């Protein structure tokens, strides 16, 4: 039972890390209807720019600010040079453009900041909590807890930002209906630039967390692949959906990794590890068969 | 002047409905086929066959398959490489386990197997639409590759699922040289491309396009969504499966499941974006472009580096390659969202009036 709980909690905490990346997707999809496949690459870019700035001798806080500026500028440039030109194209074209964007970042970021894997030191050690260790004999990583805390703060900040600021209200209006927002005088293109800036910020937080955990390397771009099932499970348009989806995916994936391969081994023989790669997708897929718009996604009504 | 259809009267239904209604098109296609079948084998070197022409044809076939699904039926799929893997492994297993089965039959059966798997993974498309579906097809991509790695029976107990393909024997003659393999691939691709061109203008193809444009409207006018969508998945996977079998048997000779990666799926997707979504010819143009671009950059970048005296390491070259690749994708989408095929169409429109445009 202890072991089960340990795996469950470990899974939930890593699910929070997935949710961090998924949040960036949700932000952009909500506000501009673009399915931004480049979010994983943006996480990579953000982590690389933090590490790159530190290598140039900047202290951590300055590096984070610089990285934030880079991400914001990058987001605005993306909006200005790519998305603005693709207005009125079908969503599929925008999606493909973001795949192109992902490649672009994956090529240019290591050229600027160097491509060797590096460690990112945030001052949080990745060790088990001694108190939990002693009392319940479970290994719960301190780092994961901090990451979960950061994610919680981030979500709360975003929620407040959306709810109470002028820009936040404009963002929600744009997300609701582009045309209506335009007609009451909301500058659509400014809003999009802001959204990309905020998504850059989310990518920065995710990049720092993932980078500190696994090292800053090319594999960071694959975080996007971890976030996609979270996204379809939670619904593309829902911030709480991203969090809950992340928790479900994280927990079930870790549990499945522990409990399913032995069963399969008994059935077929051989080694069946590594089901983490596809299990979240299949889970999300099965889930979608019941609720095609995800947990919290908006129900889509087709009009002919 | 050269490309003018004025004066070409159709007096029979057969003439009116032929595949290439304009005489110049027919002449063009026949010339192209003659060059491909007779001219190229005379002049091209071995390198050209095994490094450029064969992969080009194979990827064009896979792109054609994806184009049927995405371009005509409107179902975005990110799992085409996985269906190629199914084709490759199925062909291998048919050769291995059925004594004396002709290679072409096993290719066809491989395609059918892929079609079956495609239908299975196409089932969610009845409930799920748009990006949700695109992400769901990733399930196929990861699951299939994992299965091929983990079930040793599928790769005849070889380690990590690597298979070495059997000999290519057609009518008692073993194909060994690149030229022979090229001719085999070319024949299959030509037949299947013509079949696809026919299919998309049949009632099936029109049903696909209706579903693509708006599936609710399509079902209102009496198109049954389930068979239409599943047929699109089946046909698409069939094409990808045959392409995968050819990829294993005629191109590489030895493949592993991880070779059919997500990256390959994206590559095929890029081919149809750059070539033209919803165009048979676009699949070929796109495949040529995507395959030739890295080769071109490989040659051009060190040359440019030498010109400006910049020291480029091979890592930098590959980074520049990816960057240029991504930039070009975005550029193409912005400048010509309908792809190279559309440029060709525009050229044709211009040619019709040339040299007197008024």
TrEMBL record, chain A:
One of its GO terms (cellular component) is plasma membrane. CDD domains: TM_PBP1_LivH_like. The keyword Transmembrane helix applies. Signal peptide: none annotated. It is a multi-pass membrane protein. The chain crosses the membrane at residues 7-28, 34-53, 60-77, 92-113, 143-164, 191-212, 224-249, 269-290. GO terms for biological process: amino acid transport. One of its GO terms (molecular function) is transmembrane transporter activity. InterPro entries: ABC_transp_permease (IPR001851), BCAA_transport_permease (IPR052157). Its main location: membrane. Keywords: Amino-acid transport, Cell membrane, Membrane, Transmembrane, Transmembrane helix, Transport. It is found in: Cell membrane. It holds the Pfam family BPD_transp_2. PANTHER family: ABC TRANSPORTER PERMEASE PROTEIN, BRANCHED-CHAIN AMINO ACID TRANSPORT SYSTEM PERMEASE PROTEIN LIVH. Belongs to the binding-protein-dependent transport system permease family. LivHM subfamily. This is Branched-chain amino acid ABC transporter permease.
TrEMBL record, chain B:
The chain crosses the membrane at residues 27-44, 50-69, 76-94, 100-123, 130-151, 182-200, 230-254, 266-285, 290-310, 316-335. The keyword Amino-acid biosynthesis does not apply. GO terms for cellular component: plasma membrane. Keywords: Cell membrane, Membrane, Transmembrane, Transmembrane helix. GO terms for molecular function: branched-chain amino acid transmembrane transporter activity. It is found in: Cell membrane. InterPro entries: ABC_transp_permease, LivM-like. Its main location: membrane. It is a multi-pass membrane protein. This is Branched-chain amino acid ABC transporter permease.
